[in-house]
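cache lookup: miss for this entity combination. No prior model stored, computing from scratch. Input as submitted by user K.M.:
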Amino acid sequence: MSTPLLTAAEPAALGLTALGASLKEAVVEVRDDRGRSGTGIIWGDTGLIVTNAHCAPRNASCRVGTDDVWRDAGVLAHHRHHDLALLAAPHARGPLLAIRDPDSLRVGELVFAYGHPLGINDALAMGILHGVARDPRSGSPRWVVADVRLAPGNSGGPLVDAEGRLVGINSMVVNGLGAAVPASAVARFVERVLARRAA
Amino acid sequence: MHAKGIHSHLVTRMPTPNADASAALSDLSSSLAAAVARAAESVVAIHARRRIPSSGILWRDDVVVSASHTVKRDGDVPVVLPNGERVNATVAGRDAAADLVALRLETKAAAAPRASGDSLRVGSLVLAVGRPGQSATASFGIISAIRDDWRAWDGTRLGRVARLDLNVYDGFSGGALVDASGALLGVNNSALARGAPLALSADAVDRVLAELLERGHVRRPFLGISAQPVMLAPADGDDQPALLITSVAADSAAQRAGLLVGDVLRAAAGRKLGHPADLLDALTQSRAGEPVQLDVLRGGTPTSVTVTPADRRTGA
């Protein structure tokens, strides 16, 4: 028997499955030289992977893997303030996630974290947007804060909205809340590195 | 702004295997955000403790309800309304058992829209909305259990509460539990059940609030006895539960009525007594300040004692 609630919930649940499947194409697992595991986001067909700086130390080698195929990846750049790192992985290809402007985020909207928490590969977690923490001086978005369950291994992985757009990069847990680097800051970081390389 | 740079990345969209399904997820997301925005219009920040402010709900257009343990002072309390306006409120009353405080505003603001009764059900999608600072924040989950006659730590019957499967973050106690449309279901609290997230239903809050606004506290009937359950075994019938009085406080309602240690209470106001909580319920049912008839067994002889419960707080 199908109640009205179920008929309303079923398409949403299907959408969730589709979202998980498409995110799987966009992420890799990142391991540093000490074997600690994090998540990385394939930046379209640029051959670049974005992750947290604390997942890919500057003066160490790191490896990226999908479905147990592992390759070395060099650390191209770091952004200490935003805890971001850019890895060179020429073989990596994935869908380029659209960027969600943090100023358009609404408290309460659904967000999804994808990554490898505590060694569980390709885990999808659902939550809602809790708020956007801003830099007290500039007023620009500093952290996207989400009511979503994160664990070590989610670091460097994507936080996306219901349409699969990148909201931020999951970086830490503060008082039980997930904190992600705003997607706009991530995009600026990648663009700057790309521009430097082109020049 | 940097918007131009961002949108240069909007080259390809992610593949969406099922457009309808994705739209359903987006719709759900939008309605949750809209529900939070609606609820936030009647959730205020209360500055009456150190560290972070706590949350409160505009229960009436000039009354804010919050969790008593988060409002550390009496008298004047600064409250920041949803529109950012900072106004003064005074503590009109508080109740430790229900952990509720009523604040009266010196201005008026729009009260929270109330949900219809049937959305407080196990499995309902709910949002906790708080304002531990300037902006409203939210967490999301479901109602995991409902208790219709929940008792506080002191035995007081508080009424309907919902056990929540969601996170109650710092500053969320006293904030609103709302349904998926943003309509008010109750008051969130993390202190009533040893840290587990709980919400006192709006009906339960209404009952407490009416008393708080009338006299500043909730009257709790008090006899001044302690009692333990005993089982009477009459020769000519079934075993009967009763309460054995083990102490009588000096200058209490019980002493004034002539109750003695060793008396066995069998019924109060016609209600059989098997547990001390039954007595509390019988006294609560009768109107405060009205005499209650007790069926007593004294030295094996049935007798009747009329007692007028006092208010635990005032003693009168």
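stored under new cache key. Confidence is low (pLDDT under 50) at residues 1-17 of chain B.
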